[in-house]
Write a structure and sequence with these properties.
alpha/beta, about 35% helix, disordered N terminus, about 280 residues, Hypothetical Protein, Haloacid Dehalogenase-like Hydrolase, Chain: A, domain 2, 8-stranded mixed β-sheet, 2 domains, about 25% strand, 11 helices
């Protein structure tokens, strides 16, 4: 943080980072007129605009067209940083092949179904393993993504870096915590993130990344590039995978539609259906 302490700041917000689904986007995945107007106003005021999302780059493009005035996209929960203006991939962090092979073998041996996403930026493609304990949500996810998926090799090794693992499990936090503990004990170079099901079903999604991956680290990378002090940043999100982003930014907001257990940690603003992004940004313009 010494680098940032040397920076001068007048206290004004110079960077805003927002989650997409359930935060910036409405429930139908469209952008409200007020949120769009706020993006343009931020640009006029010289504020760096960042979308920080769990979506991969291809799925981000499905909801954010090229004319939407973001400056940067932190995608796949921080596994990659993309310059939205120039189309340049600026940063990526994948899981090393040795760890990929080791964790794949562990999950298969313990009959955990999973998707394994290929290295950034091609991480909309994936391998999948279907165990005898497969959940209905796994099958639903597979149905949506089967054109980009291929079966996990019979040799139980892909011998490749990978962006992330996705394990879908019943909504039982004890099961989640036990699997997390077992994985972290054996693979200390990994980070495990809990996310709510975007399908709005009673399942927990366990996302497994390289230990350095987070939305917060992605935004930190942009701050260093743009020489912006974290004291001049604002973040807004709605779920567990936004926590490190909101811990990094100086002014941090959770939308009203966030899990109740998170709301006591940050300021709560309107819901995503009530222009939460625009309402929060207006405080700092």
């Amino acid at each position: 943080m010494n680098y940032f302490r040397r920076m001068q700041t007048n206290g004004k917000v110079k960077l805003v980072a927002t989650d997409l689904d359930g935060t910036f986007l409405k429930n139908d995945q469209t952008i409200s007129q007020k949120n769009l107007e706020s993006l343009h106003l931020m640009g006029e005021n010289g504020i760096t605009r960042v979308a920080a999302t769990g979506r991969n780059l291809q799925k981000t493009r499905e909801v954010i067209s090229s004319n939407i005035p973001f400056d940067y996209i932190v995608f796949s929960s921080g596994a990659g940083v993309f310059d939205w203006r120039t189309g340049e991939l600026l940063y990526s962090q994948n899981i090393p092949a040795e760890t990929v092979n080791g964790l794949s073998e562990y999950l298969i041996r313990n009959q955990w179904s999973f998707h394994l996403f290929k290295p950034v930026p091609e991480n909309h493609y994936c391998w999948y393993f279907r165990s005898k304990n497969v959940t209905p949500e796994f099958e639903q996810y597979f149905k949506f993504h089967n054109s980009f998926a291929e079966p996990f090799p019979d040799c139980t090794a892909v011998n490749s870096e990978a962006c992330q693992f996705l394990v879908i499990m019943p909504n039982d936090i004890a099961i989640f915590e036990q699997l997390k503990e077992n994985i972290c004990r054996t693979f200390p170079d990994l980070k495990i993130v809990r996310t709510s099901s975007p399908l709005h079903t009673p399942y927990i999604w366990m996302e497994i990344f390289h230990e350095d991956v987070s939305k917060g680290n992605g935004v930190k990378f942009i701050c260093e590039k743009e020489q912006i002090n974290p004291a001049c940043t604002m973040g807004i999100g709605n779920d567990y995978n936004d926590l490190e982003l909101l811990e990094f930014t100086r002014f941090s907001y959770l939308v009203e539609n966030s899990p109740e257990e998170l709301k006591r940690r940050f300021s709560v603003t309107k819901s995503n259906e009530e222009n939460a992004f625009s309402v929060s940004v207006s405080i700092h313009l």
